[in-house]
Design goal:
alpha+beta, six-stranded antiparallel beta sheet, 15 helices, 19 strands, about 35% helix
Length: about 475
């Protein structure tokens, strides 16, 4: 059955020649045997903006492979989860036995296979990929050519499978380390100084924070594990968050960006109006699975996210702030230091072309991610923590040219200046050799891919280009 599908952001269209929704592992093997020699890709919830999700030959939707089995493992748990199980369903199943995930991203719509394959992460922990203990994979036997199932549970193959871009085979299920359910206490503050924000991590290791454009202050979502029971006002807090932050803020931005189209009012809103709705120091304790997520998927948007090491964070955020001012037409050039940096990498013309082309209209979310034991997740390698800087646009899909210009500039400049790694699952505009050069262990990943999928059956054009790239590796570990 041929079917056309569009991703959540509306910027990618999949046009497979054949598409299936297998009910079990045996059907997956039958499909692989039927389409031997063709390219085969699996698709999750399509909540991704990069070319990683594309598949124009045979497409497998694994939503029916969604079983969850939980077993005790010392003082923790191990969950065996079907590849197509959405995170929201997984959380409900785990909660029945008093368990939850170590790490949570902002949304719960993703399938577990899609989430780990692109390095989905939260704040203050490793990415979800780091906690994968085993991957059950469908691929072809090297000798017979028949479809087989292989369980990968150790060594470099496991490190590759933890974040694989769908390049090793069809993931059927994963085993994840889980933990006992716990509560998180949260409250908001505001600061003008990044040093205050970073110093607070010692007390609030799960915090995430936002650089507010045009106001240029930081809203800090202080978070930490807490032994107190759920607050009496937790339900009211969730309603406040849903109505004011998840829906109210975005509806206001949509009105200003898509209807009024006034840069002056957008800047005024961030300087004066939006901060008025933030309640400072309201300390609330609730379940981690409620506190750590947002309705980030409520409205169609597009985003680019880049990862920098801690020692690059201050300079990277300062550079981003200046670039946003140039893009929004408030400045015509960068500070002397950043202007020199741009000249050193030969991007003066790109900076000039960005001037007055895009008004950024959403807070820049910054989340700390601990180093992963993987080969190519964005937080893989090194001893330092990584910080993800997320730039989101709610521009109408037909009017995204300015955002793409901005995203291209940020990816190109920040990768060269700060060794920033674009998120595999979001807008990822770098060329294949530029991307692979950011990962010291990409050659090891390539070796695993060539071992498990020597014919490149489970690739698309984008992942194949990555595996064929010959980028010079910058070991910034």
């Amino acid at each position: 059955l041929s079917v056309q599908r569009k991703n959540f952001g509306g910027n990618q269209v999949l046009k497979p020649s054949s598409a299936y929704t297998p009910a079990n592992e045996q059907e997956v093997l039958q499909i692989l045997d039927k389409h031997r020699g063709q390219r085969i890709r699996a698709v999750g919830s399509l909540h991704s903006w990069s070319d990683a999700i594309l598949g124009d030959d045979v497409l497998l939707d694994l939503r029916r492979l969604n079983d969850v089995e939980l077993q005790p493992d010392g003082d923790q748990f191990v969950a065996t989860v079907g590849a197509g199980c959405q995170i929201k369903r997984l959380l409900k199943e785990l909660a029945r036995d008093g368990a939850t995930l170590h790490s949570l991203g902002l949304i719960t719509e993703q399938t577990i296979a899609g989430a780990i394959s692109t390095g989905t992460h939260g704040s203050g922990r490793h990415s979800m990929s780091h906690y994968v203990e085993e991957v059950r994979l469908a691929r072809y036997n090297d000798s017979t050519g028949q479809a087989i199932i292989e369980e990968i549970s150790a060594g470099e193959q496991l490190r590759a499978a933890r974040c694989s871009l769908g390049s090793l085979g069809i993931i059927l299920s994963v085993k994840l380390r889980c933990r006992a359910q716990y509560n998180v206490q949260e409250h908001f503050t505001e600061s003008r100084r990044l040093s205050d924000v970073l110093n607070a991590e010692a007390s609030f290791p799960l915090q995430q924070f936002y650089l507010v454009p045009w106001r240029w202050s930081y809203f800090i979502q202080h978070r930490r594990e807490h032994d107190q029971p759920r607050s009496r006002l937790a339900r009211l807090y969730r309603l406040y968050w849903l109505g004011v932050m998840d829906y109210g803020l975005i509806l206001q931005i949509l009105f200003l960006e898509r209807v009024v189209r006034s840069r002056r009012l957008i800047r005024l809103a961030f300087r004066r109006i939006i901060p008025a709705f933030l309640i400072h120091n309201w300390r609330v304790t609730d379940r981690s699975s409620s506190m750590l997520v947002m309705r980030h998927d409520a409205f169609r948007h597009i985003e680019i996210e880049v990862f920098v090491r801690r020692d690059k964070l201050v300079d990277a955020l300062g550079f981003a702030q200046e670039a946003i001012k140039v893009a929004g037409g408030r400045e015509s050039t960068l500070s002397a230091d950043n202007q020199q940096r741009i000249e050193e990498v030969g991007m003066q013309e790109a900076l000039a072309g960005l001037h007055d082309q895009y008004c950024h209209h959403y807070p820049i979310c910054v989340r700390r991610v601990l180093p992963d034991d993987t080969l190519i997740s964005m937080a893989s390698g090194g001893e330092q923590d990584w910080y993800a800087l997320c730039f989101i646009s709610y521009a109408n899909p037909a009017r995204r040219a300015g955002f793409f210009l901005f995203a291209n500039f940020m990816a190109q400049s920040m990768s060269q200046l700060f060794h920033a790694r674009p998120h595999w699952g979001k807008v990822c505009p770098l060329e294949a050799n530029e991307l692979t050069s950011l990962y010291p262990r990409f050659d090891d990943f390539r070796t695993v891919c060539n071992t498990l999928d020597p014919q490149g059956v489970f690739q698309n054009d984008w992942t194949a280009a990555l595996l064929e790239a010959d980028g010079s590796v910058e070991d910034n570990s």
